[in-house]
Every structure is written in structure tokens, then in C-alpha cells.
């Protein structure tokens, strides 16, 4: 991690909600999915907030060898966003505790505040991290 990785880093990310980010698109193999509302899904909202945090810190890491994985998220989902509406995420790095990064996050659509909360990421060496994950397949 570079010495520029300090609290105060801010990033804004925007995109337009498509059918592929709606509630029915989450686990479409389930019978319940098709009957659910066609609005921006909470699972995709969380992924969008994580993406904004990653983009905020890439210039401050030895990317792509050094990355940050999500370890904690606590966010609201306060308003529904229909397909075709733009969503904006605003994130700020508010704490650096060793390899742990703490972000304040929020998202808006064109009308409402749709989410706010906190997200934490841990800086990892990508190769080592993937190796540890693959080792779960090793049997005695």
C-alpha cells in the first residue's frame, strides 16, 4: 500500500439501473424471483457500493497484486429505484487501521437517498489470498 492511502479519499461512481440489476435477476433460478418487484436489488446495491470503494483506492495500492476484499458492510436500503434511473454512489475513506480500511458510503437515485452506511475492506496480496481460498479444496 502506498503512503497516499489516507483518510479523506473520496470517490463518486454512477450507472443506470438495467433489468440485470433488479430483484428478479437475483437468483433467477428460484421460483420466487419472477414474482418479486422489478427494482434495483439490495444485493446489487451492495456490490455497487463495494465497486465505488475499490475504485477509490486503486491508485493508492500496488494494483493488481495488492487488492482489498470486503469484510463488513452495514447499509440501509431506503428507497426503491426503477429500471432506467441513474444511481450515484459517494464513498469516503474515513479510517485506515493497518490493512483495514473503513468507508462511509451512500447512494442516491435521481429522486431519493437510497442507501447509507459503513463498509470495511482488508488489504490483501491477491495471489496469497486466492491460494488460501483454493486450499479449502485440499483434503487430508
From TrEMBL:
The active site is at 42, 50, 77. CoA binds at residue 70. Residues 18-126 form the Fluoroacetyl-CoA-specific thioesterase-like domain. SUPFAM superfamilies: Thioesterase/thiol ester dehydrase-isomerase (SSF54637). Substrate binds at residues 70, 121. Signal peptide: none annotated. This is Thioesterase.
